């Protein structure tokens, strides 16, 4: 078996000491984790870069739809929505994004008869419809669906979550492999040796040294992305994202959660508010029944209520669905301390429930802040550039790791490191498996394959080694 390159230090004799066995065991786990994770991490980093710069890309691609010439005159939002309904009579208006500035258009989201989400852009000064776009076919939407679910739905979501969890194994095992095993040397440990691009030392250092410097950034990306996943993220939210009952002022609640407004990968409402039960409108009507003649509050009044509450520009309004539905005003702000989610009775205009940053526990606050930084929204361009650096480091680690494997791989064989009897790495991975159930389940499968199949079939063992 060829020995791996050490981190720029003197290597020890290749004796089967406990330290060598531990190193070999960690290397084997790092190798298998890399084979599985690299394709996913490459995809996540690439699509992440695209979505990271969504504001700039949208402004460049859809400028005629997003920007208008400001004037002193404005058309009411109710009239703007009516214009959209007249232009698209077979579609239902689901959400409205009021103009964020005088030179920006109003965005009205509609659901067509065939179930597609389109965005219609209206000039708020003239009421003219500027155009529309399919919200599921934009560059950023495609990148987001690949990023979150591989464009195959729930099972894709599970695969992404599994790859992210194994990415943590990859980082921790990589850190151990980077640690000097003998006399410390700067070259190869903290400074890459880039003298010979065709040599294995070049690729080893291009993998290990940036991996050390980027460990926290890449780990941050993985951890802050997990709350959006369908299995671990949903369970995590159900445990931590809870609010006191008095936030609802004793109003009737439906069994529908606020998170159902986040459809098709949208982040219409903040993560911390996804577990909120949706209140119901019309609870003041006689005997709990809604009178057919009861007037509803119009969109301009709802926007006025939102602005009077101090909500920041950039919020959106989800329209009531059915007689008991509510207006939901949500501000998943780039600054999480300004996040607000507000449910308003469609008949009386009463605020039935409202939660914001001040109502979050410390865990939802940490998650919300992490998500904002993860998406490059919190600190503007500097935040985007920092996350871009994390994505580029991820791509570099994937490419250099794949090249390292290819260069050391024996002809016709996979080149996996030899099995080790030591159990310490297994214990570490088992702890991670308890924290992340999908990782734990896959761990059992990998162990069963390794110990019950590969170890007992000599031909298979030779092919993989």
TrEMBL record:
Alphabetically ordered keywords of this record: Membrane, Transmembrane, Transmembrane helix
Transmembrane segments: 29-53, 158-179, 212-240, 385-406, 426-455
Domain PepSY: 75-132
InterPro entries given in the database record: PepSY, PepSY-ass_TM
Protein name as it appears in the record: PepSY domain-containing protein
The species this protein was found in: Geitlerinema calcuttense NRMC-F 0142
